[in-house]
Design brief:
Helices cover about 30% and strands about 25% of the residues. The two termini are about 30 Å apart. Strand 19 and strand 20 form a beta hairpin. The chain is built from 14 helices and 20 strands. The chain is α/β, with parallel strands linked by helices. The chain folds into three domains: about 240 residues, DD-peptidase/beta-lactamase superfamily (Beta-lactamase), CATH 3.40.710; about 120 residues, D-tyrosyl-trna(Tyr) Deacylase, Chain: A, CATH 3.50.80; about 90 residues, no CATH class.
């Protein structure tokens, strides 16, 4: 009888601990009438489930998909992995300094060449290229500047990305040679007492690429779009900007980064007094690889993969994640394609023992609304990384800190989360997700994932609920 009472007490206690008043309040909110939630909290050491709700329901993960991609990249490529971009030439250089051949810029899949996140690392790399070409004794080029962009395939964006995303910076495609985050800044200005919007300038210069301007000044909120496809020669701006706004910067994707960099180097060589016979080009446009041997002039090496991962997760950079996917395909399958890279990632996840049921991969960044993850799969992957991952320290440090940096800056600012919670966020229309690590008040280390799809109301309202739920669990366990 005594043992029965003890067991009854334990079951009652555990049952009570599995309830959350804040979570029940969350589900009862009217904005959640049409929503689906997958939520799981587990002990990081034992894997014991602490709290569970629809843990095997597959939902859109948004940018929490980057946890899967970055974990696979770190474990399979290693934190010290780097990418290289080389500059060389074909043909020969005469004593007089005439190159009978072409300058070849060979892309090596670097995600962040010239990136605003790594300005100090790269510096004025194109100017450095010009100086190295001079040092090679080249004074005139009887040929052209060609970018060899064949390192990856010629399908820069995932097949099922939305048309409205591809023209904006966060929908920029992946190329064998990417540069400047594959994005440009378009400065626009609303005319006083008019609906007219003027384009003041574009940085960097796009060398002939044009945008048709269909923007209007109206209302008080931004509602603009950039429509531009990979390898296109023109795009257009549409929608509205606030009529009261003086200037606005629109971050758009660059349609052909490999061609841009060849044009840029071509222009800088001419400015330095080194003329070329022909207009710059790319291997894609030439439809052939450079013939003959390429004499190396210089190379530009990326930051370590661990440093790129740190920016990828803290700032949620889609471009870096998609580069990781293609690089995994290149290194493990010999093909720099999204399909091959995703297959490598799926096999890696399977190898960790994580149940892959309900996992659907369309890209590596989470931009596609056709991705699917379960809270159980995310939590178990995070547990695996902590217990068995070779590079857990690099993975863990890449996650944003509650209320301090990255995509968690300004969120989870309650003292209970300070120096305690690290997590990746994910959001898109009617989607809000978080996954990561925290320590409960008892010192118990926890891993969690919460995914909310198809809610009504604002993102801010949903985030407030999630913060309350996690705070309650943190102080209760």
């Amino acid at each position: 009888m005594r043992n029965t009472l003890i067991l009854l007490f334990l079951f009652t206690y555990l049952g009570a601990k599995s309830q959350s008043a804040e979570f029940e309040s969350f589900l009862a909110d009217s904005v959640m009438t049409t929503a689906t939630v997958s939520f799981l909290v587990s002990d990081a050491e034992t894997g014991e489930v602490v709290f569970s709700h629809n843990k095997t329901t597959s939902l859109i993960p948004a940018s929490t998909m980057k946890l899967v991609t970055s974990a696979a990249a770190l474990e399979l490529l290693g934190p010290t992995y780097t990418f290289k971009t080389t500059v060389g030439y074909t043909g020969t250089v005469s004593r007089a300094g005439r190159l009978d051949g072409d300058i070849i810029i060979s892309g090596g899949g670097d995600p962040c060449l010239g990136s605003e996140y790594f300005r100090e690392h790269y510096g004025d790399f194109t100017d450095e290229w010009v100086e190295e070409i001079k040092k090679a004794g080249i004074k005139k080029i009887r040929g052209k500047v060609i970018t060899d962009d064949s390192y990856y395939d010629y399908e820069p964006v995932a097949p099922r990305w939305l048309w409205e995303d591809m023209g904006v910076y966060y929908g920029a495609g992946v190329y064998g040679l990417s540069v400047f985050d594959n994005s440009c800044k378009i400065t626009v200005k609303a005319s006083p007492d008019s609906t007219v919007v003027d384009i003041l300038g574009i940085t960097p210069e796009l060398y002939g690429y044009s945008f048709t301007n269909r923007l209007k000044a109206s209302g008080s909120r931004e509602n603009w779009y950039v429509y531009s496809a990979p390898y296109s020669t023109a795009g257009w701006l549409s929608g509205t900007i606030p009529a009261s706004l003086d200037e606005l910067i629109i971050d758009a994707s660059i349609a052909d980064p490999p061609l841009l960099i060849s044009r840029m180097l071509h222009d800088k060589l001419r400015s330095a007094g080194i003329d070329t016979d022909s207009e710059p080009s790319t291997v894609r446009l030439e439809n052939k690889k450079p013939s003959g041997n390429i004499t190396l002039i210089t190379e530009t090496v990326s930051p370590l993969l661990s440093l790129i991962t740190d920016v990828l997760n803290k700032e949620s950079v889609n471009l870096f994640a998609e580069h990781f996917v293609k690089e995994l395909g290149k290194q493990y399958r010999g093909n720099g394609t999204t399909a091959d890279g995703l297959d490598v990632i799926k096999n890696y996840i399977f190898s960790t023992g994580v149940d892959t049921t309900g996992l659907f991969f369309e890209d590596g960044s989470g931009l596609s609304s056709r991705n699917g993850l379960t809270s159980e799969s995310l939590v178990n992957l995070l547990i695996h990384m902590k217990k068995e991952g070779k590079y857990f320290s690099e993975f863990y440090s890449s996650l944003p800190d509650a209320g301090i940096n990255g995509t968690l800056s300004g969120y989870f600012s309650d003292p209970v989360f300070q120096s305690n919670l690290k997590a990746k966020s994910g959001s898109m229309t009617r989607v809000r997700c978080y996954a990561g690590y925290f320590t409960a008040s008892t010192g118990r280390q926890m891993v969690f994932s919460i995914m909310v799809n198809n809610f009504q109301g604002t993102q801010k309202h949903i985030i407030s609920h999630i913060e309350k739920v996690l705070k309650e669990i943190t102080v209760s366990y």
